[in-house]
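=== How it folds ===
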Amino acid sequence: MRYLFLPHKAIALALVVFSSTLSPAISEGSDGATVFDVNLKLALLPEDQKIEVIIRDQATDGCWTNSSGAKTAIEKNLIVSGYKNIATAGDTSWFQIEISALGFETGGGNCAIYTGFRVISGEADRFSMNDHELLALNWREQFSSGTLLTGSKSEMTRRINETLYQMSDEFIVAVNAARNELRKQISESSVMESQKSSLLSAFSLN
């Protein structure tokens, strides 16, 4: 059995500062915007951002029996890391973490489960056509991690939950790494020192 994981790829943007893969790391775009080679959606993620953790349980045959435990552990990890605005039941957010398990029992009391951790953000794209203003809502991937777990069904739930928790740690590290990289690119840029201070202050990086 083969599994194919196709995440949506996107470039994050904030105000007039765009994330890009251009080189050098910091430059000026054709419209005068400052261009950075960093995911700004992560680098500028505010601590009061409402985050919704969603379970995608497609594991059958009793291979994942405590998905709610994984969700609770990840929410606690976010809170400890400073992100305390966790969406409650019935509440929604435009910044979501999807935790997923896809697979089944393979025989002999064993399971094969693809475990995934995906962070997406909802953004509105505006278009004008024949004097009509159109608004398109899109979900863009900001972070993802996944792995295939195989082994005893009796141990699979514990392994899935531990793996998802580790992936939440990876996400938090990625956020901090993006912030550090943005700070570094601003500090090493050729713009005036006053502009550097202004950018660092505006982005709460100083």
Remarks:
- Residues 13-202 form one domain.
